[in-house]
Design brief:
The protein has 382 residues and is an alpha+beta fold. It has helices at residues 6-23, 35-44, 50-63, 67-72, 75-82, 89-105, 113-117, 124-135, 144-153, 163-177, 182-195, 214-218, 338-357, and strands spanning 234-245, 248-253, 265-266, 269-271, 286-298, 302-313, 324-326, 379-380. The protein binds a DNA duplex (11 and 11 nucleotides) through residues 41-53, 84-90, 93, 120-126, 129, 141, 143-146, 161, 163, 186-187, 190-191, 193-194, 199-201, 230-231, 259-261, 297-302, 337-339, 376.
Length: 382
DNA sequence: CACGCGTGGTC
DNA sequence: TGACCAAGCGT
């Protein structure tokens, strides 16, 4: 890095820390000095907004107060507390990381970035965050916020994800972190990116970097960093079989073709081939009854079109599917992802219509009245 | 190393 | 309202 830039960095950093001291938002993990608590927060915050994380963080730390407690927990219980937060692999990796800390480090979270990065689920960013915030080490972080803030500050051209740009940004972040308050400096850069140096409509008038920002001097701060194009989401067609009886809903582990929800509970589901109709699918051990409708569930890279059928099982001895009955009131305590809630909500809605249409019939369906399940994905009855 | 990964908020 | 995006990681 150009040594001439050093005074500019010192000056910008001072303005940054003043901004942070005046405007830092309250967050529960900022009340803690426990490296384990910081670690949990950093993993939850990966690709996830602060406001979303807060209730999950508080519940998680109440339940698993120490790294040892987490290491000893069942994965299903860890995933149950993660349910609704998304990116469930994070929870499995955090769990594995806790076990590694117990096995390798006598249950104490290590402070050096090399040991941290060797833990499952801890990459360059999270290692730097733990080292600087929890241990006060002069280690940088580079997340999406810091990337944007620093790219604008120096008007960095080119793809910020490319190796050359990465190297420049990490080195610059390292200069910022190299001061007596590395944890605050790193959090200040992220706070600035999250509240002022926004992707669109940056609030440059309120920015502590305004005097020295190269992108602002060019008059086009929004042009930085360069944004790579994203592939449009593909469409996946699925069928889901909802089985219910007085014991609840039949839910089981995700099929091997659906590893995005590994460890989570889903109704029996099958992905359709391009030329397959939903009615062509026959799931072993089950009798399809009625098509209840379709739901669309949007993910980052895929759009799932799910045709929902009501089904009944054959004799229990003939049912080959792994799973269990989960009562409606028990759903919140289990590892139930959003997509399962959407499917069950659609089924409940459709069955409510069916039962009210045939009100005189003593349909067993009517006994199936769980509390309403929230769901924002679009649904339509057939 | 380009890609896949969940969900909810924002404009 | 749909497109964009958010304190990344592993493969």
């Amino acid at each position: 890095m150009d040594p001439e830039r050093e005074p500019a960095i010192a000056s910008a950093r001072a303005a940054l820390l003043s901004f942070y001291d005046a405007h830092r938002r309250a967050m529960p993990w900022r009340e803690s000095q426990d490296p384990y608590a910081i670690w949990v927060s950093e993993v939850m915050l990966q690709q996830t907004r602060v406001e979303t994380v807060i209730p999950f963080y508080e519940r998680f730390l109440r339940r698993f107060a120490t790294v040892t407690a987490l290491a000893q927990a069942d994965e299903a219980d860890v995933l149950a507390l993660w349910a609704g937060l998304g990116y469930y692999r994070r929870a499995r990796l955090l769990h594995a990381g806790a076990k590694a800390v117990v096995a390798r480090h006598e249950g104490k979270v290590p402070s050096d970035v090399t040991a941290l990065k060797a833990l499952p689920g801890v990459g360059a960013y999270t290692a730097g965050a733990i080292a600087s915030i929890a241990f006060g080490l002069r280690e940088p972080v580079l997340d999406g916020n810091v990337e944007r803030v620093l790219s604008r500050w120096i008007a960095l051209e080119g793809d910020p994800m490319a190796p050359a740009q990465r190297k420049v940004l990490w080195a610059l972040a390292g200069r910022f972190a190299d001061n007596p308050r590395p944890g605050d400096t790193n959090q200040a850069l992220m706070e600035l990116g999250a509240t002022r140096c926004l992707p669109a409509n940056p609030q440059c008038l309120l920015c502590p970097f305004a005097k020295s920002c190269a992108a602002l001097a060019l008059g086009t701060p929004e042009r930085f960093p360069e944004k790579p194009k994203k592939a449009p989401p593909r469409t996946e067609r699925w069928v889901a079989y909802v089985m219910c009886d007085p014991r609840g809903f039949w839910l089981g582990p995700a099929p091997s073709t659906l590893d995005r929800w590994t460890g989570m509970l889903l109704p029996p589901m099958v992905r359709l081939d391009a030329d397959q109709a939903p009615e062509e699918i026959a799931l072993a051990g089950m009798i399809r009854q009625e098509p209840l409708g379709t739901v669309t569930h949007i993910l980052t890279h895929a759009r799932m079109q799910i045709t929902v059928f009501l089904a009944t099982d054959l004799k229990e001895s003939a049912r080959p599917l792994v799973g269990e009955w989960v009562a409606p009131g028990e759903l919140d305590a289990r590892a139930i992802p959003k997509v399962t809630r959407v499917i069950l909500a659609q089924a409940q809605e459709a069955m409510r219509k069916i039962s009210s249409a045939s009100a005189r019939t003593k349909d067993s369906i009517r006994e199936r009245k769980g509390r309403a399940i929230k769901g924002s994905s679009s649904a339509s009855s057939t």
